[in-house]
Amino acid sequence: MVSGSSLTSTPSTSLLKDELDIVIPTIRNLDFLEMWRPFFQPYHLIIVQDGDPNRTIRVPDGFDYELYNRNDINRILGPKAACISFKDSACRCFGYMISKKKYIFTIDDDCFVAKDPSGEEINALEQHIKNLLSPSTPFFFNTLYDPYREGADFVRGYPFSLREGVQTAVSHGLWLNIPDYDAPTQLVKPLERNKRYVDAVLTVPRGTLFPMCGMNLAFNRELIGPAMYFGLMGDGQPIGRYDDMWAGWCMKVICDHLGLGVKTGLPYIWHSKASNPFVNLKKEYKGIYWQEELIPFFQTAVLPNECTTVQNCYLELSKQVKTKLGKVDDYFNKLADAMATWIQAWDELNPSENPGSTAAGKPNGAAKASSPFAATINLSMENLTASEIAGFGVGALLLCATIAAPRVDAFISASQRRSLDMCKRCGNLRMIACSQCKGIGSVRKGGTFGFRALEAIYESLEDRNLSFSGHFEAVCNYGLPDISIVKQFTTSLLCARKQPNTRKSSDLCQILSALCNVHCFGCGIVRQHPQCELMV
């Protein structure tokens, strides 16, 4: 491994400069970095050298970087290095694995700085960061594209219950000049260039696949990193140029399952060099044929509710690849094995992110021991009738259901996120205003039953002993039952999970299942909460 460090001062205003790595796969000197210097120099680079490890790659002075070649990969991963492709840009995913930062931006070495229609140079990295730090809206399409961008908003008819959105896991950028075409299209349109600059970002809807391109891509490594495996491609493999698309299909299925968002559109880069279409056709031809089997597979892939971590989801997907796609070609059996090896290698290099041993799992890290929510669910079981629980009102039920979800608690501690509003499936554990009794369902700024609110509520529980009328107004005022009652309900819920056949468990499950058809206990009206599935 070769390391270098910056000899110049770096701008203090660079976004997330201590939380983001730039990953670059290459076989050549990185002169292209000179054009990117104003934007990339403050950040740490991870360079993954493909091809001959004895060749020296020149990196311009002034950049902070680590360079890994094939010898380094073999040394670090040992036998598991076989899962990292050779002589293919898919080798870049080693950089994702070795990084210790929260965010990753990856770019190809033939991509330069693009200009917007006004002639201004585009800071692609800055736009990716903005995409990742703003929510996504995968459950309902906003016709004005990204409602969180300046000058945009949700259009008339967009459900208020979905406007908080979900966390964005992936930001997929585009390219001007040389389009990212397959070989047959390249051969038919050899002179075609993309000159259209569309000033838009949109969320890829849930249940919709897309062809992810790895040349201009950013993602939240803590949220989705283990799913960003670029497969077995290149040297010794029957297929190439499907590495990023394979990763994209796997990633999208898992994001849909975990309630995470994917954005595409801005930023643009300038793709400078067209690859040889005849060489590309040789790499792609089996993929073009197999794709007619691959797409239906991913469109119909279903992950079980027990898969609550990215690692668990990916391992389950690898099993389905072997079972269903192994019949198409033996290559997919090898790919499925490599997917499992990738997860093993990821967990070995990132031990703090290993999923927990509990059934619920830990999505991207271990829960911090000091979490009051984790402590609460360990209390002993006390008797509590379903009618007593119902009397608490829906706000208390939502609080208890949230506390009792180890997966949600793990989300809190895994990455110390600023805002966690995640339901177990849709990311929208929130109250809905009742039009009949005029109760307002906002528990936190923005109308979401968020974890910042939960932290504040938990700290003040012992100082409050408000009667819970069941109307939403009490929830808005953070009116909650005595902490002992919350503890009782929480442990009752855990008992219900373990003993689903008992009468008490049946009553509890019935009550909890109503959480997604949110009751106003003031008037009895049931308000449907779209796309939400609480697993009891």
Chain-wise SSE layout:
Elements lengths: L1 E3 L15 E7 L6 H8 L3 E6 L14 E5 L1 H8 L15 H6 L4 E5 L3 E2 L11 H10 L34 E10 L5 H6 L12 E3 L12 E5 H4 L18 H16 L2 E11 L5 H24 L9 H16 L5 H19 L22 H5 L9 H6 L2 H10 L2 H10 L35 H10 L11 H5 L6 H16 L4 H11 L3 E3 L6 E3 L8
Parallel strand pairs: 2-3, 2-5, 3-4, 7-10
Antiparallel strand pairs: 1-4, 5-9, 6-10, 7-9, 8-10, 11-12
Describe the protein's architecture and organization:
It is found in: Golgi apparatus. It holds the Pfam family RGP. Belongs to the RGP family. InterPro entries: Nucleotide-diphossugar_trans, RGP_fam. The structure is a single chain. By secondary structure, the chain is of the alpha/beta class. It folds into two domains: 2-353, Spore Coat Polysaccharide Biosynthesis Protein SpsA, Chain A (Alpha-Beta Complex), CATH 3.90.550; 372-528, no CATH class. The chain is 35% helix and 12% strand. The chain contains 18 helices and twelve strands. The strands form two sheets. Strands 1, 2, 3, 4, 5, 6, 7, 8, 9 and 10 form a ten-stranded mixed beta sheet that branches. A two-stranded antiparallel sheet has the order 11-12. A hairpin with a 6-residue loop joins strand 11 (517-519) and strand 12 (526-528). Helix 13 packs across helix 17. The two termini are 48 Å apart.
CATH class of the largest domain: Alpha Beta
Largest sheet: 10 strands, mixed
* C-alpha termini separation: 48 Å
- The number of domains: 2
Query: Which structural class is indicated by helix and strand composition?
Result: alpha/beta
| Backbone shape | globular
CATH topology of the largest domain: Spore Coat Polysaccharide Biosynthesis Protein SpsA, Chain A
Rounded mean pLDDT is 75
Query: How many helix segments?
Result: 18
Strand content: 5-15%
- The helix content, as a percent range, equals 25-40%
In N-to-C order, the SSE pattern is EEHEEHHEEHEHEEHHEHHHHHHHHHHHEE
Unreliable runs: 6-12, 355-536
What is the level-2 CATH architecture name of the largest domain? Answer: Alpha-Beta Complex
What is the rounded Rg? Answer: 25 Å
How many beta-strand elements? 12
Keywords: Cell wall biogenesis/degradation, Golgi apparatus
Subcellular location: Golgi apparatus
GO molecular function: UDP-arabinopyranose mutase activity
Pfam family, one: RGP
